[in-house]
Amino acid sequence: MANSRLSCTQIWVKMYGYFARLCQRLWYFWCVTVKGFFVKKKEKQIPPAEVYFHKGKIVVLGQMLMNESLPIEKRAQAAKEIGLLAFTGGPPAGKFAAEYMKEVARLLQDEELAPNIKILLLQSVACWCYLNPFSQKRARSLQFIPILISFLEGSFESSTESEINSYLLLKFWTCYVLSVMTCNNSSYVKELKDHKNLKDCLQTMASMDWTGWPENFAQVLYYLIGFHKN
After folding, report:
1. How many CB atoms lie within 10 A of CB 6?
2. What angle, 0 to 180 degrees and rounded to 10, lies between the N-to-C axes of helices 144-153 and 161-182?
3. Which of 71, 79, 100, 172 has the fewest CB atoms within 10 Å around its CB?
4. What CATH code is assigned to 54-225?
5. How many C-beta atoms lie closer than 10 Å to residue 136's C-beta?
6. 93: exposed, middle or buried (C-beta count within 10 Å: 0-12, 13-18, 19+)?
7. From residue 206, how far is each of 160, 166, 190, 201, 222 by CA, in Å?
């Protein structure tokens, strides 16, 4: 009985450590990636209260995203910037951005898109859903979970090392996005737990080299979902 209690305590301590590190890494993501996007030399930081500014920028970027005559990389970059604006603008900006996330979901399902383009789109989703229950709920209704699961469960054959590395990087980003969505969201935990193959996929991903990443997000997601309890 004592060993059982000790085991439970160790598991909870380990889970707490993962949650604490996840929060720290997300804050690092804000300071280094997001904040750096808006703060440039000789420019003032955009006041978060100016929601109307965020809306106007989102509309302009949304038009670029929806413009099929533009290069796909430029459209994907616009999607990423929409996500960043949604992140800094809070819930109101997140609602403005939601109008264009359907197109992001559609593009992510295009099997011909290169991994680097899909990663830009995933970065958009990560920013959009960061600590935003409305955006997380909206993303779920747009069927982002099946799309992301397909990235993790999919296989890729290539003799080119660069292509293999690009495909693995896409999976790494998928783990990160799912971690952002799942943190403090029980509905995501429940739905992801129903994907039986996901457990094995995350175990495989967790065993890979995550050097250069702030955290092994496959392992983080594994614990967030609760697969370690089975």
Report:
1. 10
2. 140
3. 71
4. 1.25.10.10
5. 23
6. buried
7. 23, 17, 21, 9, 9
- Contact partners, residue 43, CB within 8 Å, separation at least 6: none
d(Cα 217, Cα 21) in Å, to the nearest integer?
A: 10
State CA 27 to chain mean position distance. 14
Q: Where are the domains of the chain?
A: 54-225
pLDDT score for 229? 76
Task: Confirm if 131 and 92 have CB atoms less than 8 A apart.
Answer: no
**Distance in angstroms (rounded) separating the CA atoms of residues 166 and 173:** 11
Distance CA 132, CA 128 (A): 7
Phi–psi pair at 168, nearest 5 degrees: -65, -40
Please list the ranges in the chain whose pLDDT falls under 50: 1-13, 16, 20, 32, 34-35, 37-51
Q: Which two tokens stand for residue 85?
A: 């604006």
pTM of the model: 0.77
- CA 10 to CA 165: how far, in whole Å? 35
83 and 128 in contact (C-beta within 8 Å)?
yes
